[in-house]
Amino acid sequence: MPAGKLYLVSTPIGNLGDITLRALETLKAVDYVASEDTRRTGLLLKHFEIKKPQIAFHEHNEQRVIGRIVRLLHEGKSIAVVTSAGTPSISDPGFVALWEAVTEGIEVTAIPGATALIPALVLSGMPVYSFTFRGFPPHKSGKRRKFLDMDKDSPHTLIYYESPYRLRKFLTEALDVFGNRHGAVCKELTKLYERVTRGRLSQLLDDLPETPKGEYVIVIAGAETE
Q1: Homologous superfamily (CATH) for 5-111
Q2: pTM of the entire structure?
Q3: Cα(96)–Cα(83) distance, rounded to whole angstroms?
Q4: Residues 73, 77, 80, CA angle at the centre, nearest 5°?
């Protein structure tokens, strides 16, 4: 029996209108949907009137579940991998499935679409011709400072994801490491309360609410652009 096919499907990061026609066609056609959050994906599928069995596939169980996914692919089943929002493998589960499928000789394709880092970069006002995406920094202060220090002399625009619970600490340490560079804090992109705040890092810290809420992308100017 010929092997099935694995699809890495990008889904909206907030606004459901950002789903692509190809993503919808793929979700309708596959046999299974491997979901980071089955409840959230269930709402997405229901909104677009798609009924598919889901396989819970997230960072806490992916090593255990990947065997089942590979077996289904070898049985000729097609599977779409989706995360809670955005593009699989970009600071989200997906890489393990991709690597295992490639290793097993199974065909893989990506259905492009929404991801938070690109609109954040474009809206930031920072140079877009050369950038480095760094994802989520380490949670602990010492490791986070070392993580930031690696890019202190980088000429590229820097892009980070950060939790609202650690946003103030992150910006404080970024100010210490990088100096008072230009930056942008992008909140809730594509959603009702989308907001982009631009300015020096010290200004961005001053503009933070006492208790930040939502999802954030931080963009910081590279060393040579200051």
Answers
A1: Tetrapyrrole methylase, N-terminal domain (3.40.1010.10)
A2: 0.91
A3: 13
A4: 85
DSSP-derived secondary structure letter, 15 = -
C-alpha 163/C-alpha 12 separation (Å) is 19
For the segment 138-147, what is each residue's pLDDT rounded down to a tens digit? 999 999 999 9
Residue of 218, 153, 154 whose CA lies nearest to 184: 218
Are the CB atoms for 187 and 161 separated by under 8 Å? no
At residue 1, the pLDDT reads 58
Assign domain 117-225 one CATH number from 3.40.50.1100, 3.40.30.10, 3.30.950.10, 1.20.120.1200. Answer: 3.30.950.10
Beta bridge partners of 111: 9
Give the strand order in the sheet containing 5-9.
54-56, 32-35, 79-82, 5-9, 107-111
Give the residue from 181, 170, 149, 179 showing the smallest Cα distance to 217. 170
pLDDT at 226: 56
Mark 108-121 as b/e (b = at least 16 C-beta within 10 Å).
bebbebbbbbbbbb
Distance CA 165, CA 14 (A): 20
Give one DSSP letter per residue of 45-108, joined into a string: HHHTT----EEE--TTTHHHHHHHHHHHHHTT--EEEE-SSB-TTSSSS-HHHHHHHHHTT-EE
Q: What are 145's two structure tokens? A: 């400072």
- Alpha-carbon distance of 12 to 24, in angstroms, equals 11
Q: What mean pLDDT value characterizes the chain?
A: 94
